[in-house]
Amino acid sequence: MPSYRPPVRRPSAICLAGSFRPLLRYDKSNTMIAKPRIWSRQILAAKEFPMFEIAGIAPAQLLLVTGIALLSSVLGGLSGFGAGMVVVPFLLPIVGIKGVVPVIAVAMLIGNAARFNVYRSEVRRETVIRMLLMILPGAILGVWIYDALPPRIVAVVIGSVLILSIPVRRWLAQREIQPTRNGVAAAAFGAGLIAGNAPGGGVLIITLLLSMGLTGPALLGTDAAIGTILSMTNAALFGGLGLLDMSRLIIGVTLGLAMIPGAYIARFFLTRLQTSVQILVVEAFILVGGMSFYWSAFTH
Questions:
Q1: What single-letter DSSP state applies at residue 39?
Q2: Extents of the domains making up the chain
């Protein structure tokens, strides 16, 4: 009497990027053949030649994000905001929801340090110290909240911050805000809180600096100095909480190195291009990034 053989469920023919699980062949009796069959060159490269992977991701993915990082650093150098937010939607499918902000912190540490080196002679040191006294406590609280929240809520928070940053920046830019001591302190704390949760605190920081009368190279240099210390603090906190492993660290360093040439390219174009068009481009990237986080939150 033949033994009962339960039906074997065939695996899905879809192989998601990064998983690289090979499809299996079946004979006519629906029996699985042990030897896997490679279906695509991408799977072959990842499965049979792991030395071509960098930090656990395919070279093509890393090359794409590196190019976007270079573009974002140029746009951020021209407008003073958006450098970290532009690259966000391209990082999401690679490092996951919880990995986005830690990777951005590392990348922006290098990118801001490069921009600081370009404009170091224009930095207003008193303003940097005054702002950091309130920004850093807010950032520490923000990182703690980021670690405690589940990924779905984190995605909604990041998406909301990205999308709302566009009308908020426009609203603030249309008004002549007279900064007060308490107002600057509260806004700086809020900027740090946002920076610990999502890539968007720089919008508030740049607005505060504008309200203090900083423009041009002085604005960009002071913002870069604040951003360097803020990113260093966030990266250290994320590392201590276990949210910044070696893979994410390497990706962040790669993105940050790609941002270094962007600071010098932006300086070349700073006095040669109108900023209105490139600000619209930055806002378009930010809007797409925010929508991508909503999509990830409600479809996964």
A1: -
A2: 1-46, 58-299
